[in-house]
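Discussion board: Methods & Data

I've been asked by a reviewer to show the raw model output for two of the constructs in my manuscript, not just the figures. I'm not sure how much to include, so I'm pasting the format here to get opinions. Each protein appears as its amino acid sequence followed by a line of discrete structure tokens. Is this the kind of thing reviewers expect to see in a supplement, or should I convert it first? Here is construct A:
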Amino acid sequence: MIVIGAGAIGTSIAYQLAKGGATVMIFDRGQVGGQSTGASAGMVQINPDRTTPPATSALALESARLYPALAAELRERTGIDIGYRPGGLLHIALDDVDEPRLRAHRAWQVEHGVAVSWLDAAAVLDLEPQLNPAVRAALYYPDDHQLMPRLLGQALARAAVDRGAVLREGASIDRLATAGDRVVGVWLGGESIHAGEVVIANGAWASAWSEALRTPIPFDRCAGRWSRWRRPAPGFVTW
């Protein structure tokens, strides 16, 4: 298996594959966690709304449920503390327009199983005294957590390597190797490296493979995620 991209997604996939017994190679044009992962806020957040697809909400809830065990597992295996800590989120209302909107949002979330509390102004300022004293109310998400994203990527990469994965930093993939309608590996300089499956997890650079795959890879800038296309080439997976 080849994984292109050594951010949080790529290293997580590589670790789980290696743990499952697969032979894995990870390539990154820079360093582990050196791009969007290192710049991210590190929020493990459960905050769906009416526009969130049900499958995405279910994935977020399950991911959040698994994080404590993953953090403990990585610390035990690598000695790296990824900084997984409680980090409750406040969504504040500052005027009489925000307040009813937040109430309606909370009603929908409670109906869909989200742990969220309504706090009046006094309770909000007691919890976070540095907020604007004009705050009217807030939604409080006590189950949200935070972590150090770059440490997460480093811990996952080290754990994957400990399981036998090969990590190559500073290795920019030139193009995908294809045979007919299958992706069968990658080209790195003049070197062809073959694999049964190729996973692309290199974020902002993933669109470079659109031509080889004969399909666009659009980027949803608002959601900050790549869209999966309808008919991916066999032997190819993208996140």
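Construct B, same format:
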Amino acid sequence: MPTNGPQLKTPVPARNAQFPWNEFAAVDYCDHNYLDLRDDDKEILELVAAWFAQAAAGRPAGDAIDVGAGPNLYPSLAMLPHSRTLTLREYSTSNVEFLRKQSAELPERWEPFWDVVSPGGRHGGFAEARELLAERARVEQGSIFDLPPSRWDMGAMFFVAESISQDPVEFESAVGHFVRALRPGSPYAAAFMEQSDGYEVAGVRFPATPVGLREVQYCLSALSTDLKVQRVEMRPAPLRPGYTGMIVAVGRAR
């Protein structure tokens, strides 16, 4: 039966292309998130470093990629001992510039993160990490949606797929492009902000797709083998308003 009342419209989610990514304030973001090693980041890094060490055991070093690396170097550090080359792929011009400077001469602020990857100097000290990163890293500007398939042997994607759009379809597409960029059997690690409603960097608002364990498991299960997904409590306090924790997933590309 027709009605004459007002019709409510479902809000259209903002998509990736609508945001000023080249204005992303990389230094401000890094200072806010990675000035010190938080307990939750340490837990994630311990899990991921152990997974990559296990997955790489007995295999020759291959080509690794950190997708949407941005101002966060610790996923790359987790892969560094097990890679012969390391691609840091990033869309934002400002983040590309930041990564080129940081990878050329890794600042000491990252030493506590490297100590988690290389406890007791298992993979060398920080000076060696700095040399290896400068030697192996290649910063590449490009979109997650344009990744070539089956190109890399190891991969990481931290706080990217859910943090570039409000559209769940784009979230799922970003996850798919990441995993499919890896050769079958290649190990990967991915991390997500749980139930994020967006975030602000230097006064500019950026989007997010709220996701939880169910959404992450759903997106990755058909693409992966040996998949493990778990929630990490925020510690010691929230980095910012508008999220409920973190999620980390490890597995192999199917």
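Answer (T.O., handling editor elsewhere):
This is acceptable in a supplement if you add a one-line summary per construct. For B, something like: The first helix runs from residue 26 to 34.
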